[in-house]
Amino acid sequence: MTSTNLERVRSDVVSMDHLDQLEAQSIYILREGFARLKKLALLWSLGKDSNVMIWLARKAFFGHVPFPALHVDTGKKFPEMYAFRDHYSKEWGLDLTVEYCPSIDSVDPTLPPAARSAARKTEGLKLALAKHGFDGLIAGIRRDEEATRAKERVFSPRGVEGGWDVRDQPPEFWDQFNASPPPGAHLRIHPILHWTEADIWAYTARENIPIIPLYLAKDGKRYRSLGDADITNPVASTASTIAEILVELDGTTIPERAGRALDHETEDAFERLRVAGYL
Amino acid sequence: MTKPVNPTSLGMPNGTTRPQLRIVIVGHVDHGKSTLVGRLLHETGGLPDGKLEMLKAVSARRGMPFEWSFLLDALQTERDQGITIDTTQIRFRTKLRDVILIDAPGHAEFLRNMITGASQADGAVLIVDALEGVRDQTRRHAYLLHLLGVKQVAVVVNKMDRVDFSAVRFQAISDEISAHLVELGVTPAAVIPISARDGDGVATHTDRIGWYRGPTVVGALDALKPALALDELPLRLPVQAIYKFDDRRIVAGRIEAGHLAVGDDVVIMPAGKRAKIKSVERWSATPLEGEHGAGRSVGITLDRELFVERGDVIAHVGVVPSDTRRLRARIFWLHDQPLTAGSSILVRLGVREVRGRVVAIEKAIDPGELASVETKQIARNHVGEIEIALSQPVAADRYVDNPRTGRLVIEVGGRIAGGGLVLSIDAAQRVVSSDIVPVQSALQPEERSARYRHQGAVVWFTGLPGSGKSTLARALEHRLFAKGGSPILLDGDTLRAGLNRDLGFSAADRSENVRRLAEMAGHLARNGHIAIVAAVSPSRGDRAEARSAVDTAFREIYVATPAEICEQRDPKGHYAKARAGDLPGFTGIANDYQAPETVELRIDTSTVDVGRAIDGIEDMLRQTQVLDDGAADLAAFEAV
């Protein structure tokens, strides 16, 4: 017993590749969130990232997702996305919660059009928070997507108004997370912050995670990132399988969110959205 | 339903098979960290399309020459003020590997963000301005790298263009910083002269640094090694949670060190309960065979029903972590309020959360200063060595034995306020000689505290003869009793008449007198009473021993009445006798009283009346969780 425990050599250990390491870290984060917060929800945008996140939650909790999958619906997603949601929420046994965004008329009309659209989603998120009283929202943002997201914490506190105070982020190190939101405020939990776009695809392929077909090229175009149908554009591509997407990503220097209009309206468009509570 | 696909068969190019290295760039503010990151990305072809044009536009809008740092300083305030506020990460690829670059702010104001970034790194690049040389943040960052466990450090001397690429200037800075690092136990992997703005020494050698023979920055990064394998250390599986979603009772956690397999004999610490691993669970396929090593997030089931909870640590028989309620740590402090002896804190050791108390601060310095001045409190951005008493036993390792389980963080008000390494563990806390079998009280401390509405404690009054200790002690006893509490007065002079009548006034006898008082007071405190001790107790060392014996329940009050007023009062006529030479060894006129430096409370009875002094004591006892204030968490400070 004791001696055999000690004598076993390291070469017996099943080695971990890059995707195994990413997965193990994400599972650790999800379990910490579930242990330390009272009322969690996972934000399901139906895109490739949040699908991977649901997959990781099923791994973390041994086939169960012990919190609701919250879809804040703008009503303007692609039809393929709604079909995907309705099918897989059943197949994966999710507690699907859909909350609708308020009318665009109620959102600041001075914002540029795409930012106004995004601000509407932030309003929808605030309404859902107020209605359900969640103290933690699990969100599938990644550092490599966008420069202000690169500055995020894994456990990121939000103010009572849902805002992000970028000037006063708490220290976070050694996988020790600040998990005590003041009453009325909430935390964002980012379990795949350390993944890249290529990691998401490689993992999706390895695990056979279903995806929305819009990501694969048809007639020379595909979507790299999925948002509202009216403010998301496809990119030129011939990648019709995940393996081909990975080869394409290896050679590209075009940013992932190039097709997302809201990132490009002004220098700080995205930061302002995020400070106000956007993902 | 999932059929694993072999990732290599996909011809996966990006990041999945290439080794990864995390590098943090640190150094003094304005020495060029963000610029170096921008230049590294540019030189290695890692810049996204349109980024260069965007940076030109952003710089021009602010009327500045081209500014690399705007690449990472993505926040509007960072660009407007020209400083990095928060840490960020960005990737690039060298011939050999993928590098994740972590940019950290150099401004002292944002040290917490530097630590957030640097804590994730396998190696570091420490940047020094060729013109300005080594500055306070250079030293502070170097010290913190060593505290964070980042041992591989390459130094770059930047802005060589500003010193005309002088080899002499380079050598002077190289010598100074190398000496500083070696003193911290770090040998720099390389010292490289560069101009981040122009590109000299970053990816290529240029004529302007023709005299330099060492590696470029990219070359030095390629020579650093990824993180150490933790598989070879003894098994440590901290328990994150117990899940009972179905008929399985799964103990979930991440293996921090070592490895495990089905059939292993394990011990659950700190309780020391034994079990065998029955299965290793995984969705979607269970059970799993083979050895599972450090870094894996796993779920296991045990062969028997045991009480296991979050924060326990599972280890192999014979190589278990220590079980302790007291440890010493070297920490860095980030909170606005300095850390002082007596502070109550929340300690996180891995996933274990436990309340504690700083029993002593042994050392405190500002790592940014050359000649460090030691103080007895740890200020913001300073480091120090502290002794912590915990309210419950925990499983812990020393940092030198296990870099993952041998570190802790301290939380104040729900926010991380500091962190550090476990230097030593006092495992003797629970050892009881086999010949002596202490008889436990029939009552639990909680039963008593529910009746008295306070926790057990020792309130220790120290001060010169005539300072007012006994008066305050008696008044406090009266106040606590009137409120339904259970105070007991232990007066030094009264006990000398009986229990301690064998003791005189030699230094050794005085120490023994204090030791007996502390033992007796500690026993009363452990049984839920508030022992009020009034004793001159002139020796700082003796009082530290008393605090150590009583542990977290000790509250020291310094009655700091000026000596001349004490002598005027002379309630027992001792000063008069001593002046007449009739009282050798009397404390008061011989200047042998050692005033405390850090205490829970300080009272000068010449400026405050007894009633107000007692109000102040009550406030202190409430704030330090001895007295219940209704909302207080009773479990937080179990009598010890």
UniProtKB/TrEMBL annotation, chain A:
GO terms for biological process: sulfate assimilation. Keywords: ATP-binding, Nucleotide-binding, Nucleotidyltransferase, Transferase. Signal peptide: none annotated. Its EC number is 2.7.7.4. It is an enzyme of class 2 (transferase). It catalyses: sulfate + ATP + H(+) = adenosine 5'-phosphosulfate + diphosphate. It holds the Pfam family PAPS_reduct. SUPFAM superfamilies: Adenine nucleotide alpha hydrolases-like. One of its GO terms (molecular function) is ATP binding. Belongs to the PAPS reductase family. CysD subfamily. PANTHER family: SULFATE ADENYLYLTRANSFERASE SUBUNIT 2 (PTHR43196:SF1). This is Sulfate adenylyltransferase subunit 2.
